[in-house]
Amino acid sequence: MNNNKSKFQLIKYDIAILLICVIVVAIDTIAKLITDGETLDGIPGFISIFSTHNFGGAWSIFSNATLVLTITSIALLVVILFFNAVYKDKSGLYTFAIGLVCGGAVGNIIDRVFLGYVRDFIKLEFMKFPVFNIADCAITIGTILLCIYFVIFTKKDKKQEKQNLEDKTDN
């Protein structure tokens, strides 16, 4: 990871994060509006639309704790945004992942603030799994990508730094 990113490069990454976030929120909101109150067959035995209102968190844990979940979600979003503001080794993968996580968080926060619950609608028919939404998908995929980014690229950078140090000592 290159620590020599210019302010302009870092601003480009932040603008991309904002755009990804806005796109995720827009897709999530439109999907929730279209599917709210609907039950539709999708691909039989695979996926369907089954509208439900989740008054809790993932897997309906902390049901009826909307205020606590809202405050916690906002606090975590602030922590992520603070980390992003101070983190300088941004890349395309990092940017995409942070944009997905933030967009998903904002999508669910909007539901909690304005409705008191989160609208879920994607039901997997081939396994017993909680009903979820686009925001949940974005958070999950973004988190997985962030883990990949920090595990793989941090390892590569440490190896590169070690090699650079060895090269300097050999000279």
Please describe the structure with a list of short key phrases separated by commas or semicolons.
4 helices, 171 residues, single chain, mainly alpha
How would you concisely characterize the structure shown here?
The protein has a three-stranded antiparallel β-sheet with strand order 1-2-3. It has one domain (7-163). The chain has helices at 7-35, 66-86, 92-115, 134-170; strands spanning 39-43, 47-54, 118-124.
Describe the protein.
There is one protein chain. With 171 residues, this protein is mainly alpha-helical. The protein has one domain (7-163). The chain is 65% helix and 12% strand. It has a three-stranded antiparallel beta sheet with strand order 1-2-3. Strand 1 (39-43) and strand 2 (47-54) form a beta hairpin. Helix 1 packs across helix 3, helix 2 runs antiparallel to helix 3 and helix 3 (92-115) runs antiparallel to helix 4 (134-170). The chain is elongated, with a radius of gyration of 20 Å. The two termini are 24 Å apart.
Question: Which bin fits the share of residues in helices?
Answer: 55-70%
Q: Helix/strand/pairing class, anyone?
A: mainly alpha
Number of strands: 3
The major β-sheet equals: 3 strands, antiparallel
Total discrete domains: 1
Work out the helix count.
4
The outline comes out as elongated
Mean pLDDT: 88
* Fraction in beta strands: 5-15%
Element pattern in H and E: HEEHHEH
Low-confidence stretches: none
The value of Rg in angstroms is 20 Å
Task: Please list the strands of the largest sheet in the order they lie side by side.
Answer: 1-2-3
